[in-house]
What does this fold into?
Amino acid sequence: MLRIALLSDTHNYLEPGLHKYLESCDQIWHAGDIGTISICEELRKIKPLIAVYGNIDGQDVRKEYPGEVEFMCEGVKIFMTHIGGYPGHYPSTLRKQLEEKKPGLFICGHSHILRVIYDKEHQLLHINPGAAGIHGFHQVKTLVRFSILDSEIKDLEVIELGKR
It folds into this structure.
């Protein structure tokens, strides 16, 4: 079993006290708009980091992290990118990728809107963890934690980090 902390849209800001929500996890995943590579370095001090770059990320982040990543975790195929829309409203190129890749879990960020939706059409769980940073229109900073065990995503929880 792996316990995952999922962040997005930190925009070069890490919430004071964020560490307490991450240390009980095995890995940290970041769905883009990280800010600078120093944010990645801080997160890697806590736990291993899997990340993708977002549209605001500069060359320092883009040199180290791809725009999308596909991998297996505890029997679940994961596909993560920054700009992804949501079920019924995916960009056409992404829709094709989801049909070809057939992930069980699709993760994106960008909208700053927290969403956890089962996509019946593509038979996958869609997660956007909202925004953990202070820039944007969101009202509350959020992250998502969950476990993956024997090909099942379970124990999902939304953590509110306070007002933006």
The chain has one domain: 2-163. The first helix runs from residue 19 to 22. The chain has a mean pLDDT of 97. DSSP finds four helices and ten strands in the chain.
